Amino acid sequence: MESVQEKKSASFARDSPGWTASEQREERKRRGTGMNAKLLTTKEVGAMLRIAPRTVRDLIDCGDLIAVRVGKRKWRISEDTVDAYVRARTTSTNVVRLVNPEDEP
Question: Which of 28, 30, 79, 96 has its CA 20 to 30 A from that of 66?
Fold first, then answer.
């Protein structure tokens, strides 16, 4: 018989396309339980990233952002997940360096 934890894991796996159940379990272990993390709405995440809430939902649908479904159509994303998403996509090629032309040799 399937335990409650296994049912929750299976539900999480169905709600997070692009991530296998084992990847999600590893991510949970890496981040801890996440119970102390602040959960944000798609609108709040959109405001943080300066993108539309619909784009946030698209990122969730394609598996780029891990989210928890609450209710039929609502999602919550932890601040840690948003931070990890930004860090993973920040590279030296897309970070703007401001250089004073007078400082150049």
Answer: 96
Q: DSSP character for 97?
A: P
Helix axes 79-89, 42-49, angle to 10 degrees: 30
**Mean pLDDT along residues 12-23:** 60
β-sheet with 74-78: strand ranges across: 39-40, 74-78, 68-70
Tell me what pLDDT residue 26 has: 72
Specify the 3-state DSSP secondary structure of 70: strand
**Cα–Cα dist 19/21, whole Å:** 6
Collapsed DSSP state (helix, strand, coil) of residue 18: coil
Q: How confident is the model at residue 8 (pLDDT cuts 50, 70, 90)?
A: very low
